[in-house]
Amino acid sequence: MGRGVARIMKKGLGEMGFNKGGGTINWFPGHMAAATRAIRDRLKLADLVIEVRDARIPLSSANQDLQPMLTGKRRVVALNKRDLANPNIMHKWTHYFGTYKQDCVPINAHSKSSVMKLLELVEFKLKEVISREPTLLVMVVGVPNVGKSALINSIHQIASSRFPGYFLVQEKMKRARVGPLPGVTQDIAGYKIAHQPSIYVLDTPGVLVPSIPDIETGLKLALAGSVKDSVVGEERIAQYLLAVLNTRSTPLHWRHLYNRRMEGLNKSDDRHEYNLKDLLPKRRKPPNDSAVHYIEDLVTEVQCALYTTLSEFHGNMEDESDMECLIEQQFEVLQKALKIPHKASEARTMVSKKFLTLFRTGKFGPFILDDVPDTSSVVQ
């Protein structure tokens, strides 16, 4: 990312203490401290650890405090939400982890075939101990909102068919506290997924490190949803997202959409108002066709608005003042594109929330926010 953007994040996003109200951000509330201690205790008992990370931020979503303990364990890094991550770069990340002899599997926790590939690797890595241990413990760890529980639910659903020999799943796979295991208390939920040998999967609370190493890492975590929007502030996260899109020239790739709109190929008079919450996964019927078309039109409006502002931008992307002016202009066109009333109170917050929802649900395409580190100096 350009130096100008880094300066903007330090100046515009950092001087106020990184959170919307200023002051020290409460990244690490008391329950996280207790959960971290409990996770460390359980890690000593684990036969294998599945470390779930967000595929959009493979490095930023790692809990660095736990890494020293994880290094000495059988471990699989599961890069979840691969459907939201750029597939053209994903192979570079698996190569990066492979360079450090670390097993890594990009997954979609809601896809049966994807989770089965992960379980195949888990089975392979447990093969040695399965034959001699009556009870095995697999721990699932990760920062908040990377999809740990979704993964465990998928494992529940497919364990019986995936491992007919080892994983004889009980008829009723109810969520259970793992009481019989040494040292396991009620703050970490356990699931018995097999017997002969008995295999337990522990779903641990999502915990962050006590201090985020830098502002950009914190903003990436916030953009991915691992930190509550209300803590950092939706507007601040949206500013960061715009800085990322501008620096990568992403809106310029949407020129074809702008041209199509100008040609009148994507216009519709039959537009209705629908809530962007319809994009979020819920246990209900999907939006009807007119709602889907409305969302598609809305996304196109946003993309065309950002294309126009960036294509007409003649400033220096490395200059923090120029970038700030561009982002301010983009907030104005986004308000119009998202149909937020001009004089509405909290208009900036409403624009930010809708803009972030579109990004997080993949409507602007797949992204990976972290850069792949250089591994040329790593000894194979």
UniProtKB/TrEMBL annotation:
What domain of life is recorded for the organism? Eukaryota
The reply to whether rRNA-binding figures as a keyword in the UniProt entry is no
Q: State where the protein is found.
A: Mitochondrion
**GO molecular function, a single term:** GTP binding
Which residues are in the G domain? 138-216
**SUPFAM superfamilies, per the entry:** P-loop containing nucleoside triphosphate hydrolases (SSF52540)
Q: Which InterPro entries match?
A: GTP-bd, GTP-bd_ortho_bundle_sf, P-loop_NTPase
The UniProt entry's GO CC annotations, sorted and at most eight, read: mitochondrion
Keywords per UniProt: GTP-binding, Hydrolase, Mitochondrion, Nucleotide-binding, Transit peptide
What are its GO biological-process terms?
mitochondrial translation
The record's PANTHER family line, in alphabetical order, gives: MITOCHONDRIAL RIBOSOME-ASSOCIATED GTPASE 1 (PTHR45782:SF4)
Q: What is this protein called?
A: G domain-containing protein
Species of the source: Escallonia rubra
